[in-house]
Amino acid sequence: MKVKTIVVDDERLGRKELLSLIEQHSNLEVIADYGNPEEARLGIEELQPDLLFLDIQMPGKNGFELLEELERAPHVIFVTAYDEFAIQAFEVNAMDYVLKPVDEERFTNAVNKAIELITEEKKQLKHPDSKELTGDDQVFLKDGERCWFVHLRDIEKFESIGNYVKVYFNGNKPLILKSLNNLDKRLSDKEFFRANRKFIINLKWIHKIEPWFNGGMQVELKTGDKIEISRRQASRLKEMMSL
Q: What is the number of alpha carbons within 13 Å of residue 5 lying toward its C-beta?
């Protein structure tokens, strides 16, 4: 099962190095590469890759700004010469963060992790669970030796943590082996909302909504937790919650 891949790096030699490394992984199929962020945005929207190798510092638009503009962002591995963006990269739920000059073993580890998760996602999409989950549904959660039966209405939010999702309810925070993307497809969009690449929130747990930076929004849940809504998702939330 091939993983459709796009490379975005404004430096020609950087793209050439990445393409050479990717060639060593038969499960990856490069469908395009771009040196210009705006051309990359259009190409990503059209081609819908599974995986994006993305530089950060680029002229006109950085990698984070590019992701913000995408309607549906693929999984991302950042490849950059700058280590100071690592925390921000994982805040947007990047699969990995590889520094230039690229170490081949480090790159292989990042690729293998991405292929494993994306392949599992594709299998689940091929054989999906048919039933949409609503707040009235009860789900079984297991984390280590602890188990719970939980009504979805009691779950405040879901947080992506690498290949896992952390589920927040009644003071509990178990980790389940599932991707946020697949979970998003099963949850009722009338009750749950994809706030950004990292969080899905329960709309019934929203206490307050405030304008935020760059046209985004910030929601405060009844628990007091605050979640930033990306600019694109903020527009969707306004439409959903308007009369």
A: 23
pTM of the model: 0.67
Per residue in 78-112, pLDDT (tens digit) is 999 988 988 888 777 788 999 999 999 999 999 99
User: Which residue would you say has higher pLDDT here, 28 or 83?
Assistant: 28
Question: Which domains occur in the chain, in start order?
Answer: 3-126 (3.40.50.2300), 138-241 (2.40.50.1020)
Which residues lie closer than 8 Å to 22 by C-beta, 6 or more apart? 5, 7, 28, 30, 53, 111
Q: Which residue has the tokens 């628990």?
A: 223
Could you give the CA distance from residue 53 to residue 98 in angstroms, rounded to a whole number?
A: 10
Contact 168, 157 (CB under 8 A): yes
Among residues 167, 169, 186, which one has the least CA distance to residue 125?
A: 186
Question: With contact defined as beta carbons under 8 Å apart, do 219 and 208 qualify?
Answer: yes
The pLDDT value given to residue 126: 64
